[in-house]
Protein: sphinganine-1-phosphate aldolase
Organism: Pristionchus fissidentatus
Amino acid sequence: QMPASDGVHLIVDKAQHIHQLTTELLKRIDPMVLVVATVGSTLIYLKVSKIYSRSELPLHKRLVAFAFTQARRLSIVQRKIAEKLGPAKEDILNSIHKDDTDRVFISDIPSTGKSPLDIEILSKKYEDYGHFAVDKGKVSGTVYTDRGEEHLQMLAKIYHNYAYSNPLHPDVFPGVRKMEAEVIRMVLNLYHAPKGSSGSMTTGGTESIIMACFAYRNIAQSRGVEMPVILCATTAHAAFDKAAHLCGMRIRHVPVDGNNRLDVKAMEKMISSEVCMLVGSAPNYPSGTIDPIMEIAKLGLKYKIPVHVDACLGGFLIPFLEDAGYGVDLFDFRLSGVTSISCDTHKYGCTPKGSSIIMYRSQEVHHYQFFSIPEWCGGIYATPTITGSRAGANAAVAWATLLYMGKEEYVRRCKEIVFATREVAKGMENIPGIKLLGSPDISVVAFTSSEYNIYAVGDILHKQGYNLNSLQNPTAIHVCLTYNHANAETTKQFLSDVSDATAKVSQLPDKGNSSSTAALYGLAAQIPDKSLVDEMTYAYLDACYASPPPKEL
């Protein structure tokens, strides 16, 4: 057996020999060639590394997608795709406009104005296109309050007074400036924000999330990180992907556990010097499960990384859980690691659509969200959010709603909604073949099945007047309960209808695999080039703005 010292000497001798051979070889090469080769190979390495890090997909899947994309450039392939997509796009257009009974489309401003009465009659006609019974709990999420008449009448009066107000001009509209500031402070206090905390009102949860990502990107770039990374769960809202796209950031998705909660250990392993924010959902959208915010906040403190809590969905439920008699772990600014929170007032806060709050632990962090051009020829220009002009009426009706509802009413509604959610979850577990997806912690119940295609169940429920949400990866359906679901009659009827639908699907020879939604999602999952799926989603969005096709005879 060779002594350790002899082994070391042998390695050193070999290294020296290799060094001498390499030196002799390089002496024969022009120094300029060496310099160019070194610089060029370094640049190529950096470019390839950047391209590789842009996507989380495995390399083989990227290569398959790339090959598919190249094949699409061939004219014969393009013709085949057009043949297949043409009818599908036509179906989408007809589907979007199916409720437009008269197919009359106003495309030009009338020469002379119409009377208020005529306009009111026409608007009522448009309103009657909708056929979902929102007030009877047939719709998942979407409208979160019962739209009480007294509340609506008050909102109409407030809107009348503030319809043309604009917080961009606080000197002209000092009242709406104060309303907006008071709404922000009320929500900050609801989340136990410390002294020196700050926030902004936005148009919705997506803008609130984008603003937080924008702020943390700016902080990271000020510290020399060229392309900062967002670290969030696979169940985090798609708005984080949108923010990464808009802000020139990268996003990495952390796996979740069996209950659909973010895996904290996996998150810690994914932390690098480029990570600019850690994200936890309270709750997440797909299954309504609350991520372990306390543990994520500890990670933030340990690695000195900002932590954002996305409470857009449950923003006006989770703060009232304790008073409603339900236990909940800390999730807000009482955790020193939490640096920002997004909360939608226009969901369970019952305000009209168009208001959300992005909150920060300190003004210092909030300032990184601001945008300022001090040398613009039109004067010094500064805005707190994406938009310049903002609808002051949105701030006014949000302010009015918070004052009208009061904490006691929010607690009462929270108690009833959470109770109804748990009753639905309990009932689902008694339906043959149904399995809950994740943990229904607040107001969402997600369910799937390994015995039959759950999308087929959703299609049957849709025909019965329900509007539920289809999920993927894994396949599931969820219902987001609102105040309109919070009664025994509605929950009992829903469970009965789900039970009947599952019984029908389970008796089908193919277990529902040929249903329209099952076919759509099945096809989307098989296509390696997701730009084809994008093309269909764009067709859907185009149809929303298109004039209606002629009625089918």
The two ends are 94 Å apart (CA to CA).
